[in-house]
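Predicting holo structure, NAP bound.
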Amino acid sequence: MTINEDSPQYATGTALVTGASSGIGAAYARRLAARGHDLVLVARRAERLKTLAAQVSEEHGVRVDTLVADLSDTGDLDRVVARAAGDDIGMVVNNAGINGYGPFAETDPALLEKVIAVNVVAVTRIARAAVPGMLARGRGTVVNVASTLAFAGSLPPDPLPTRAVYGGTKGYVVTFSRTLAAELTPSPVRVQVLCPGLTATEFHLTQGQEPVGGAEARVHDDGGMPVEDVVTASLRALETGEVVCVPGLVDGAAVDRVTAAETGLRASATSTLAPRYAQGSRQ
Ligand SMILES: NC(=O)c1ccc[n+]([C@@H]2O[C@H](COP(=O)([O-])OP(=O)(O)OC[C@H]3O[C@@H](n4cnc5c(N)ncnc54)[C@H](OP(=O)(O)O)[C@@H]3O)[C@@H](O)[C@H]2O)c1
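Done. Tokens:
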């Protein structure tokens, strides 16, 4: 592995990227290869991984391994987790994700479980596997990909219903990443949560595997942010130390205001029952 001179200190070692067969993950793989990282590319579609691996290793002279795995399958996830614990791993990009959109009461519970397996369980287990070695070696970076839908709890039912479980998983990724980042401070291991808005990928063409049609699939007709810009924001935020990276957010201080509101809420919640609950309650 050769690291470019302009590559910052955080970016050393092999990078394991999940969901590297398309979209943001593939863009991340290309950019990290250009920076001299060896790569481990994870996804289900073997052919796509093989093609990308051949391209980037030829172009940038880095070693690229592919790991074909379904992250919702426990046995497959175990293999990825074992690789993430390798002592060459300097960076993990937990990017794979599925949406499972649909009215909550009508959506197949097995699909919802899969959304949680890929978006929550895999992210947590892969990070848990990688971080101890990173701490021991005194360097490492974990990027977890969430979404601006992590902040969707205050949305009215229209125009964005049917995303409760997806939004919930991304809310987990945000809180998990921020809390872990705080826990690992002041170690040199960095944690970032990347929260893209609508991005020009294949994401909305399936719920996870089965193609979807209609308006849902046409969401990308309007474009969305190019994947290269999303990755540029993430890499720049690693340099500046931003934990919560929202690529399209012009007013970066908005994240600080969310943090301040949370702090205020926690600080003013006492261990005494609030009067509005006490009033009128029966014994
Ligand atoms: N596109 C958007 O508008 C948008 C907005 C906010 C956040 N995001 C987030 O960005 C991340 C990347 O999505 P994307 O937009 O780049 O979409 P994408 O093009 O659909 O890419 C998703 C990637 O995840 C992989 N994946 C899906 N299920 C998997 C499984 N069970 N096991 C292993 N890999 C799996 C897919 O590979 P295989 O199919 O080959 O397995 C693919 O490489 C996701 O976490 C998503 O939630 C996307």
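The chain has one domain: 14-278.
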